[in-house]
Amino acid sequence: MLKTVRISANSKTGPIAVTYRSGEHETYGTCPTSCSLHPKSETGTSQIDSDYLAAVFDSVPRGGQAWTYSHFAAEALPLPQPNKTVINASCDTMAEAVRAVELGRPAVYAAPLESADQWPRKIHGVQFARCPAELADNFSCQQCGGGRPLCARGAREFVVVFVAHGTGKKKVGTDAAGGCYAASGPTAIQWHNTRKNGAANDAAALREFVRTLPHGSFLRHHIAGDCGLEVGAP
Ligand code: SF4
To answer: Which ligand 1 atom is the nearest neighbour of the CA of 144?
Structure first.
């Protein structure tokens, strides 16, 4: 199920186009079960939805930029290509992020709350730096990178660090399941609403949506949800 938003009210992304993706039966149905931020009580999947992933990769607004993140294994994600969506590997450990960079994938790292003052730093020769929207008020993806948002740079060699936020922030970087930032608050409301009212054919809905966006738009795919294929009713 896909919900499309032409102008987001989310203060972190800024007023850009965004989507939310949910399973038909379970809100977390498109997320990999292997994601360590996935709440234990929720159901996920181990398979990628190749139709949806292809639609995400292709769906870049004309003259614009598109990016997203996935918790599936880095090697399962498409390598960056010109005029395609940049799919960042979302990593739960620094070692995973370094490996993703070595595999040629742009990577981001969900860092524990207590690491907040430890960035930037180099790990195994790879630079890690915090998302600038976490460091300044009134700063969003729309302003990031002077027109080239850091997460939309496919060929970058540095890892973008997101320090844990949301109500589950204390679980990030621990052995406890959970910590997903979309588990509560306004993002959770939008996400659960996606399961009830989103478009059923998400790949087709996405391809149609991107055609309607103005030239030069930014599109952040699935603020919540991932590229997985829901396994069916519980
Ligand atoms: S690094 Fe830039 S593009 Fe990525 S989430 Fe932060 S503000 Fe947005």
So the answer is: 2
